[in-house]
Amino acid sequence: MIDLSIFKDADLTNLKSDLDTLDNELIGTTYDYECRLTESCSPRELLLKFCKPTPFTYGIFTEPHFAYSGRNQLIKILSDAHALNFDCWNTFERGLRLLGEGDYVPPAPSLNTQPAGQAPELKTGEESIDIASITDWNAISTPEQSESKTPSFELLKERLQKMVIGQDDSSEAIAYVVAQHLAKKNPTKPVSILASGSPGVGKSETAKALAKILSQDCGQEYAVSWTDLNNFTEAFSVYRLIGAPAGYVGYEDEAVFEVVERNPYTIFIFDELDKAHPEVLKTFMAILDEGRCASRKTLSDGSREFDFKHCIFFFTSNYDLSSNQPAKRKIGFAVSDDVEDICLKENEISVSYRDKQNHSVSDTSLPMRIYRNNESARRAFVGVGVLREIASRFQCFVNFKPLSDEAKIRILAKQIIEMGFEYSHAISYVSPSIMQGLIDAAMSGDSLTVRSFKSVIEGYLAPVFARTEVMDNRTYRLEGSLEEPQMIAENHAR
To answer: Among candidates 155, 158, 173, which has minimal Cα distance to 314?
Structure first.
C-alpha cells in the first residue's frame, strides 16, 4: 500500500521510466498502485492508475470513485472527475506531490499578480501548477468514460491474424468464439479456450494479442494474468489459485484469482494445463460452468464469491489434440437425416422434411468446423488422462499447427524489428543477404521453437545495434552481409 505523502524521488523516477518505455502500441496501458489518501477521502484506500493517454501526456485515474470533504483543490478535482491529465512530466510530478500533501490548502492566487484571463495556480512550496494544464481529464480513457462497443468477428479475426503469424485457422476460431461472448449483455459464464500444439507455435502470443486488441477496441481495459501450471503439481497448490484459509501458510499472499476483484475483465492465461494436479483442474469446473468461485474472504462488494462471467480463460497444452477421424457413432438419439428444419413457436414444435436431394449444413462452414474440432479434441484430451468432467467444461478447443517455413521467415523478420526497438532503432529494411544468412543459421540447428531464433539474431545483430547512434524519428536499413552488417539511417523521418 503506497502512501502518497511518502512517495520518494526514486519512486517517481521509476514510474517515469516505466511510463516512458511504452511503445506506441501500448499507449493507454496503466501501471496500478494500491494507494492510501488523506483521512478526508472515503474510501481512503483505492487503486491509482498511472498511464500515458498520448505519447506526450501523463494521466491518473482512480478505482473506485471516492468522496472528498477536505480543501485540497487537486484532490477535489480528482474526486469529482475521477481522472486527471497532465501536459508534461514536470506538471505530472508536481501534481503527485500536491496530492500527497493531504488536506493542505494552497494559498489563494494574488489578484494583483495574476494575469487577466489566466487560470489560477495551485501552489506547493516553491512550485506551482497551472489548473488549465490538469483539468482536461477527458483525454484519459477510462472504463466509465469510454464508449462501450463490441468488435465484430471480422475485425477480431483480421487483427489476430495480423498479430499472430502462421495460425490463421486458429485465430479465426478464437475470434468467432470471443466475438459471440462479447455480444452477450448478460453472460452466465466466461469464455474458455484450450489451445493445444507444440511449443513455440504462438499459443501464449495469441492470448496476449487478444488482450491488447480487446483493450483497444472494446472501450474496456482488459487485464492479463499469466500462470504457469507446471508449478501446480501438488494438490495443496490449489490454494495458490483461490487463496489459503485463515491461519494457513500463504494466507497473506495474493491468490491468482484475486486479480478479478480489481478488474472483472481479465484474460487468464494458464500454460501447461496437462502438468497441473487433478485437484487444481477441478477448481476450474465451477468457474467454467457457472462463472463463479468461492473467495477465502469478504470482497469489497460484500460478497464471498469471485465473478468471472466477463473473463476469458485461455489454457495451453503441448499435446497434439488434432484428429481427422470421424466419430464412430452418435451418442444418444439423433435427428433424422430427412429433417430439414425444426421450428419452435410458443408452445408448438413443427418439423419439416427435406427432399432427399437437398444437402444439410455444409461441413466446411466455420461453426461446423469448430464443433467437430471441439468434440474430436475433447475425446483426445480424455484419452491422454484428463478427467472427462474437466474436459467437458472447455468451450473451445483450438489446435495450433506446426509453423510453415514461410511463417518462420515472417516471424524471424518480426523478431529483427522487435530487437531493433529494444535498442531504440526503427528497422525499415533488411538486405536479402542478411536475411538469408539468418535463415540459414536459424534453420541449421533444427530448432524446436521460433523462440530459439532470438538468440541467433542477438548473436549476429546485437553488436551493430549497440554501437549505432540513436537518432530520434529516424528509420534504419540493415545493409551488407551477416558477417559485416551495417546500419544506415534513412533521410526521411518515421
So the answer is: 173
In a domain, 33, yes or no: yes
Instruction: Indicate the number of domains in the chain.
Output: 3
* CATH code, domain with 446: 1.10.8
Residue 377 lies in a domain: no
Handedness of CA 261, 265, 271, 272 (dihedral sign): positive
For residue 350, give the 3-state DSSP assignment: strand
What are the helix and strand counts (H, E) for the chain?
14, 21
- The whole-number pLDDT of residue 149 equals 64
Dihedral over Cα of 313, 319, 325, 328: its sign: negative
Q: Please, what's the b/e burial string for 146-185 (b: 16 or more CB within 10 A of its CB; e: otherwise)?
A: eeeebbebeebbbbbbebbbbbeebbbbbbbbbbebbeee
Question: Grid coordinates 496501458 are at which residue?
Answer: 29
d(CA 134, CA 111): 21
Q: Which amino acid is at 328?
A: K
**Tens of pLDDT, residues 367-389:** 888 888 888 888 888 888 777 88
Is 258 inside a domain boundary?
A: yes
- Residue 367 falls within a domain, yes or no? no
Q: Are 305 and 290 in contact (CB under 8 A)?
A: no
CA distances from 279 to 11, 110, 233, 255 (A): 41, 69, 9, 16
What integer pLDDT is reported at residue 432 of this predicted model? Answer: 85
Structural domain that includes position 13:
2-139
Nearest to 394 by CA among 195, 168, 173: 195
Last residue of a domain, one of 139, 167, 199: 139
Q: Decide if 329 contacts 345 (C-beta within 8 A).
A: no
